[in-house]
Amino acid sequence: MRLDELPAPVPAHIDTAGSATARQPLARRFSAWLFRDHGAEPTPIVLTQRRVFVLPTRAGLAFAGALAAMLIGAINYQLPLGFALTFLLAGLGHSAILHTFRNLARLEIEAGTAAPVFCGDPARFTLRLINCRSNARYALQLRSAGALARIDQIEPQASSLAEVLLPTQRRGWLGLPRVTLETRYPLGFIRAWSYLQPDMSVLVWPRPEPAPPPLPWGSGSAGGIAASAAGRDDFSGLRNYQPGDSPRHIAWKAAAGGGPLLTKHFSGMQAGNVVLRWDDLPPQMDSESRLSRLAAWVERANAGGIVWRLDLPGCSLGPGEGIGHRNACLNALALFGQPRESA
Amino acid sequence: MRLAGSARVRAMWLAASVAVTLAPHVNTLPTWLSGFAALMLLWLCWIVLHGLRLPPRWLMLVVVGGAVAGVLLTFHSPLGKDPGVALLTAFLALKLLETRAPRDGYVVVLLCYFMQLAQFFANQSIATAGLTLLGTVVTMATLITLNSERLGTTERLRLSGLMLAQAVPFMLVLFVLFPRVDKPLWGLPSDAFGGSTGLSDSMTPGSISDLTLSGAIAFRVRFDGFTPAAAQRYWRGPVMNDFDGRTWRVASARMLAKVPYQVSGPRTSYELTLEPHNRPWLFALEMPGGTPDNATLMSDYQLVSRTPVRNRLRYMLSAHTAVRPGRSEDAAILEAALQLPPDFNPRTRELAQSLRSENADGAALIAAALRHFSLSKFTYTLSPPLLGRDSVDEFLFDTRRGFCEHFASSFVFLMRAAGMPARVVTGYQGGEINPVDDYLEVRQSDAHAWAEVWVANQGWLRADPTATVAPSRVQGGLAMAVPEGEPLPLALRPAFSWVREIRYRLDAVNNGWNQWILGYNPQRQKELLERLGMQSPDWHTMTIAMSVLCGLIMLALAGWALAQRGRLDPLQRAWERLSQKLAPAGLARKAWEGPLDYAERVGLARPELAAAVREIARDYCGLRYGAGQPAAPDKAARQLVSRINRLHP
């Protein structure tokens, strides 16, 4: 699908954007200032030195402790070469700070693809890390909300792709949360990291109902296409009633005889036009179940090569067919009832 | 846990770190422990090469227990420097077989650093420093491997070399400016020092000739005044007064508050750098005109330091080569200098009596005794025959082959038997000027023993029977004096003059190392800083200077780290230029526009360029994103760049 068919996403973390108001505690404002936590930012993001933070790791602290012990040993036993070794290692520690910093600084991050997914499937955010330097970069890690991606190497003046997989729980826009890009290369004594929040969102479609009832042929009254086609089809059998089956297709005679509620099935259902209508769904269904069912129907209709129309309160899509129409319908379902985006 | 490919690379690097770190310790560690460590290393290599599992934890516990028990059995105590180093060695070797997580790798490397420091207890030579540097490079490369498996071996080593080069300025600044203290911060374990060679406080036949087999430097001297002739260079050490028939021992002596003799005659001054020998005495050219700090002159004119010389020690002294001390000597001292064990060496006593009766004057008696030595056919040799109970008798009348301790011992015995107060003085004689740096080098092979006889109204006179028997010994050194074929140190043999030449150079380098690196103590630090223009350097100013210089180095290196503007490669630059060329026509590339889309848009707007631009865009995509890179990407890129340059919209 093409991304430009998507409606523009709501800026992620709209609640934190421009949030350094006087009501916040000082520490949080300081942290927001220090780490430039100002919400989503447009890409490409360049990790300037102001954005790269450096602190020792636990191994680095152990190294510093070892150096202190070695210095005391050198003083106490009057070992000139002990001094020299300790000072050399201290210099190496400093050099490690620079190399670790350098491994991250001036890296560029571009937003890659962020294709829509069904709710429950992992959202896949692709970031392109661009190394404009003439030295390779090694051993970078990308973390975001518990997800972890490793980038072993970026060649000089080349780029690598990193994928962040995030779980999805709700339909609608899922913004990429704050990403921590970090490295401990080369010695592991120092951790350099940077916080960034590329302006990326994945549209999460409603999860299709696992076993939906058959497509609602000819139900409703709108548009004559579906209604005119459905009536002439041949009766092909009965099956168990499922919530949402049109009352017109229920085998009332069988039901009146004390039997189970059955729905009449017509063979012509595979070839005609379908209207998927929010309002025709049984009134006891909540809106998320309705969206789930509609999503499942859209998928089924698309798979069957059928022309369909989706009627939602306040918007109607189609009739149409094919992957583009399917995506448009799923997008509409994903965003149904959510605030109209401003962007 | 079976080792995966990357874990195997890590394990091999860790093994290399440990091997390089432990190799210099082989000399000092107990043999079984060196073998044990080597075994552990081989075990790990076996595991890695065959892709086996690391040994189970219980097995490692058993081996750890065994190693600890072995160390305790060897040293009888877990405390002290040597057992500590031994335990560290065992743990390091074992930890290697237990590196499961990356954290364990860091533990191994940090232990390696401790072991690299520990090797300086035994040896701080240039070679050790070189080995340590190698160890540092390998451990760095190991740390890099722990963090990234993508680099090749040369890249790892190159990066560690680069980091090392960046660390060296820090090391130099800190080494020069870090305030040094003279005393340890707290008491050291009793075994902190040991195993140094040098003269001892007793002398038996053979003790000095054993010492002369060592070519090691005893001390170095830089003369400020004139350099006395070789035959005048008697470096006074322990004075032996007590004799039990076989062994001469240092007697207890009083401390003198000041130099007891009148100094007059030729005077020279010098700076002496004494190698640590773990004994309190200092060496001084006869006779010293004063005492260094923290040292006193004893009543037998021996210089003794308050603490054993455990570090290389530098002191300034003056010498008065013509002074004869002790003109008014204590009666008790003279009495002690006449003591002889009874019932020893009857023949020598006889000879003494006859000399006594022939010479009434003390000086004449000494001359007659020396004459006896020169007339009897004595041989100066490094390998004298063994002597029995009456060692002096056997030496003087039977074997007549001996080294300086035989001559000095028998001469003093003879003098005492003749009623002259006499004593043995040990020390060094002669020494060699190193033509490379003009330092006088005095080696263990210059160890010597001579006699001192007291004559009324004249004081103590030096009498060296060795000089009488083998004059070349005191004029030209040991190599000139001993017969050919004696087991001299290689460099002392005349046939190996080129060895001598090399040795001079090496010794000069070593001396520089000792003077400036190992001998960099508070005094030298002060001297150097004053010479560099720092007025009255104390720890305060040194700390400030150190911080400022370190800050400057940090800034310089930070500048290097930041100096990496985002440079575009030529291909990218040419692609950007294409957009700039088309910009006047309103056809600049949009930020979001891919190359192919852009080419399409240009082609629609400017059909005459369509073919060329499409081709450029296609090739550009191929070079930049193409999965199948062309055989010669550089050449293809250059061609594309020139095609873009030739395009004239």
Protein model, in words:
The complex is a heterodimer of chains A (343) and B (649). Chain A is α+β, with helices and mostly antiparallel strands and 343 residues long. Chain A is 28% helix and 28% strand. In chain A, the strands form five sheets. A five-stranded antiparallel β-sheet of chain A has the order 2-11-10-6-7. A four-stranded antiparallel β-sheet of chain A has the order 1-3-5-8, with no helix packed on it. Chain A has a three-stranded mixed β-sheet with strand order 4-12-9. In chain A, helix 2 (58-76) packs antiparallel against helix 3 and helix 6 runs antiparallel to helix 7. Chain B has 23 helices and 17 strands. Chain B has helices at residues 5-22, 31-49, 57-75, 81-96, 102-122, 126-147, 153-177, 207-212, 331-336, 346-358, 362-375, 391-399, 404-417, 465-469, 471-476, 478-481, 497-518, 522-531, 539-562, 570-582, 595-605, 607-625, 633-646; strands spanning 202-203, 217-223, 234-243, 248-250, 255-256, 267-274, 284-285, 295-298, 303-305, 313-320, 379-380, 401-402, 422-429, 432-433, 440-443, 447-455, 459-463. Chain B folds into three domains: 5-150, no CATH class; 202-497, no CATH class; 570-646, no CATH class. In chain B, the strands form four sheets. In chain B, strands 1, 3, 4, 7, 13, 16 and 17 form a seven-stranded antiparallel β-sheet that branches. A five-stranded antiparallel β-sheet of chain B has the order 10-6-2-15-14, with no helix packed on it. In chain B, strands 5-8-9 form a three-stranded antiparallel β-sheet, with no helix packed on it. Chain B is of the alpha+beta class and 649 residues long. The chains are: A alpha+beta (343), B alpha+beta (649). At the A-B interface, helix 2 and helix 3 of A face helix 5, helix 6, helix 7 and helix 19 of B.
Brief rundown of the structure:
By secondary structure, chain A is an alpha+beta fold. Chain A has helices at residues 26-34, 58-76, 80-104, 224-230, 252-256, 287-304, 322-335; strands at residues 45-46, 53-56, 107-111, 117-118, 123-131, 137-144, 147-154, 158-166, 172-175, 179-183, 190-196, 201-205, 235-240, 262-266, 273-277, 307-312, 315-320.
